Amino acid sequence: QAICWVLNNLGYLHVKEGRHEDARACFDRALGIARSRGDLMSEGTLEENRGELFLTIDDLHAAERSIRRALAIAEQRADDVRRAAGLKLQGALHRLRGTPQLAIDTLEHAMTLSAVGEDALLGGEVLYQFALALRAVDRDDDANDVLRAALESFERISARQWVGRTRAQLTHPASGRYL
Fold first, then answer.
1. For residues 98 and 175, what is the distance between their CA atoms, to the nearest angstrom?
2. Segment 8-46, tens digit of pLDDT
3. Are 66 and 47 in contact (CB under 8 A)?
4. Where does residue 11 fall: left (phi above 0), alpha (psi -120 to 50 degrees), or beta otherwise?
5. Cα–Cα dist 159/141, whole Å
6. Dist CA 130 CA 148 (whole Å)
7. pLDDT digits (tens, 9 = 90+) for 82-133
8. What pLDDT score was predicted for residue 92?
9. How far apart are CA 148 and CA 132, in angstroms?
10. How far apart are CA 178 and CA 155, in angstroms?
11. pLDDT per residue as tens digits for the range 43-85
12. How many H helices and E strands in the chain?
């Protein structure tokens, strides 16, 4: 299991550095290990990370497959925090596909579930995606209010990368991409 998490973390770093092929290779190898061991918790997390990778590179079909699998695993495990994480990605997918109202509805459900858990980073990420969905339906004032709430959440946990991204979104709005 340790090699699975090392590969997952390495893949996540590759995503953040823009090394998408390396990220995919790490996630795919780790996913194979998790599946061979019947490790649903790791498999679900890896599918979430693959979904985020695919959203980042605009491979929406692959993103949908990974997100569906991550959500199915979260349902099977009755894990509300992982459901919220999957719904955050699904909401982003809906927005990118041009169905912002469906994104808003999905992200509202994700907000409810993320409030149950104690993952402050996930809560902020859900708010961030919710704000982008609000922007997509020209609710800019509401989006800015939500972004400010997300910013407070990110600042509280010292999530510097998210603080910078959220401040940039507040000053230079752009909702056509995943992040």
1. 11
2. 999 999 998 999 999 999 999 999 999 999 999 999 999
3. yes
4. alpha
5. 24
6. 12
7. 999 999 999 999 999 999 999 999 999 999 998 866 789 999 999 999 999 9
8. 97
9. 12
10. 21
11. 999 999 999 999 999 999 999 999 999 999 999 999 999 999 9
12. 9, 0
Tokens of 108: 């509202």
Which pair of tokens denotes residue 122?
């996930």
> Helix (H, G, I), strand (E, B), or coil: what is residue 159?
coil
Q: Measure the CA–CA gap between 78 and 82, rounded to whole angstroms.
A: 9
How far from the centroid of its chain's Cα atoms is residue 156's Cα? 19
**pLDDT tens digits along 165-175:** 999 999 988 75
DSSP string, 97-156: TT-HHHHHHHHHHHHHHHHHS--HHHHHHHHHHHHHHHHHTT-HHHHHHHHHHHHHHHHH
Residue 5 tokens, joined:
């998490």
The helix-helix angle for 60-77 and 80-96 (nearest 10°) equals: 160
Which single residue is written with the structure tokens 């795919």? 28
Interatomic CA distance for residues 61 and 139, integer angstroms: 28
C-beta atoms surrounding 108 within 10 Å: 14
Tokens of 113: 């579930």
Q: How many residues make up the chain in this entry? A: 179
Can you read off the two tokens belonging to residue 138?
A: 């020209």
